[in-house]
C-alpha cells in the first residue's frame, strides 16, 4: 500500500528558488545601460549648460562645466530677438508657423489615411492589394526625387508657397506609412465585428465612425505622435513649399544657427535648438506608454 | 408547409476555387436546420451567403417569399450570431442590442420595449449597463443572441455560436437555444462541426462536404441510415466500424476475412453481389460473445478496453481490421482474449465500395 502523503525534506531544496543579487547577466545589463545613458545625456548636458552661460564664460572652453553665473538671456533672445535672415524677431514667428502647418497636416493626413486603411482592410475591391503594394512602394522612393514635379504641380494648382501647399505635401507623404499602420491595425480587429455591424444595418461610414474608430484609440495616438514629430521636425518641405512668410521653426532655426556673419553665439544656438525640439519632446514624454502600446497593437498582424 | 428559406442552384467561386456547387436547400418555416461538416466544407460560407455577407456567383436566395439575392444583410429579415460573439466593445449591452434598431431609425420607445423583451427572455436584465469586457463568455453569447432577437426577424443564423465556450457552458447554452426555438418558433439555420449539437438541436441536419450537401435528413435517419460512407464516418463518436469484404451468395451474405455473415433482415435496398463492399456497424450494435454462431459472428481478439464512466469501449482486431464495441462498464475483457462478435445486421449499413453509397 502506498502512503497517502510524505512530509517534505527540509534540508534539501524546497520552495522558491533563491535569486542572486549580482548575477553576471545583471552586471552586463547595467553596464550597457550606463553607457547608453551617458551617450545620450552628455550632449544634452553640454547643450543645457552652454545655453545658460554668457559668451565670455563659453570662450574659456570648459564645455562640461556648469555655468558660474546662470543667465537666461540666450533663451529670451532665441525666442524673440535672434535674427532669422532679414528680420530679427527670434523663433517666435517660426513657432506659430510650425503650429499652423502641423495641426492641419496631422488632422488631414490621419483622416485620409485612416479611411483608406479601413477601406483596404474591410472593403476589399478588385486590385486593392496591388493598390496597397504601390502605396507602400512609394515610401521607398527618396523624397527629393519627387520634389520638382510636386513644385510644378503646386504651381499649376496655384497654391505654391502657401500653407495649403505644405499641408497637401505632408498629407501625401504621410499616406504610405499611415495607411500601412491603420490597415494593419484594422486587419487585426475581428472580421465578425464588421459582419455583425453590416447585419445591424450600418453602412461604410457608420461602421467606421461608430464601431471601428472608438476601438482604435491606440493606433490614432500612435499616428498622431508620428505625424506631429515628423511634420514638426520637417525642414525640406517647409522651406520648399511653405513660402518665406510661412517658414516653420526648423527653417528659422537653421537660419539662426548657420548664419555665417559675426560671432557664433553658441549659447543662443543651443537655446534655439532646444526650443525647437521642445514640442516633439513634450509629446513623447506625455504619451510614451500609449505610443509603445499602439505600435505593438499595430504590429501584431500584417 | 410554407418555405422560409429557399436556396436555388447556389454557386460560389473564389477565383478559380469553387466553394459551393449548385446547392439547393429548402427550409420550412419554423424549422431548425443544422449545417454540419468538417472545416472547409462550405457550411459557414453558405451561412454568410444567406446573410448577404458574401456575394454569390450564381443562383438565387429567397427568404420569406422575397428574392433577397441582391439585398443588403439588414434588408433580409435575418439576425445573426457569431462564434466570437462580435459585440461592440465600446458600447454597453444596451447599446449593443439597440445599435441595429437605431440604424433603422426606430422610435426610442419601441427600441426600449424590444430591448426589455430580449433581456427578459435571455435573463440579461442586470447586465444591460455593463460593457462586454465585463461579461463572461456565456453572458456575451447571450447578448449576441439578444442582438438577433431584438431585430424581431423570422430567420436566425448561428455561426458556430458555442465553439468558444467551455464544455459545461456549451451544453447549458445548447439547451437554452433549443428552448428559445421552442418559444419563438423562428426558422433557425445553425452551423457547427460538433455532431452532438447537430443531433440534439436539429429538426433536419445537412451534412456537407466539398461544398455539396451529402445528406439532408432528420438526425435519427442521418445516424441510422447514412447515405454514404462519408456521412457514416463523420457522424457518431466513437465512429462507425467499417468491415471491408464482399457481398456473396446472390446478395444474401457478406464475406469478411473468410467468414460469411447472413444479410438477412438488412434495413435498406436489396443487396446484390458485389466484389467490394463495406459493412458499417456502430459500436453499440455489436455483441461480444464467447461461442461462434454460424452466419452471425466473426472471430476477433481483444486489444484493450477504455472505461468511459457509463460504459466502456473495447477495441478488437479481426482479420487485420480494428473494431470498437461499446459494452457496459462492468464487463472487463483482458487483452489477448479470443472472442466472437455478433453483428446486428438490421441496424448496419452496407456500402458499395466503389460508389461509396449506401445500398
From TrEMBL, chain B:
<keyword id="KW-0813">Transport</keyword>
<feature type="domain" description="ABC transporter">
    <location>
        <begin position="5"/>
        <end position="235"/>
    </location>
</feature>
<dbReference type="InterPro" id="IPR008995">
    <property type="entry name" value="Mo/tungstate-bd_C_term_dom"/>
</dbReference>
<dbReference type="InterPro" id="IPR012340">
    <property type="entry name" value="NA-bd_OB-fold"/>
</dbReference>
<keyword id="KW-0067">ATP-binding</keyword>
<dbReference type="Pfam" id="PF00005">
    <property type="entry name" value="ABC_tran"/>
</dbReference>
<dbReference type="InterPro" id="IPR027417">
    <property type="entry name" value="P-loop_NTPase"/>
</dbReference>
<dbReference type="InterPro" id="IPR003593">
    <property type="entry name" value="AAA+_ATPase"/>
</dbReference>
<keyword id="KW-0547">Nucleotide-binding</keyword>
<dbReference type="InterPro" id="IPR013611">
    <property type="entry name" value="Transp-assoc_OB_typ2"/>
</dbReference>
<dbReference type="GO" id="GO:0005524">
    <property type="term" value="F:ATP binding"/>
</dbReference>
<dbReference type="InterPro" id="IPR003439">
    <property type="entry name" value="ABC_transporter-like_ATP-bd"/>
</dbReference>
<dbReference type="InterPro" id="IPR015855">
    <property type="entry name" value="ABC_transpr_MalK-like"/>
</dbReference>
<dbReference type="InterPro" id="IPR047641">
    <property type="entry name" value="ABC_transpr_MalK/UgpC-like"/>
</dbReference>
<comment type="similarity">
    <text>Belongs to the ABC transporter superfamily.</text>
</comment>
<dbReference type="Pfam" id="PF08402">
    <property type="entry name" value="TOBE_2"/>
</dbReference>
<dbReference type="InterPro" id="IPR017871">
    <property type="entry name" value="ABC_transporter-like_CS"/>
</dbReference>
<protein>
    <submittedName>
        <fullName>ABC transporter ATP-binding protein</fullName>
    </submittedName>
</protein>
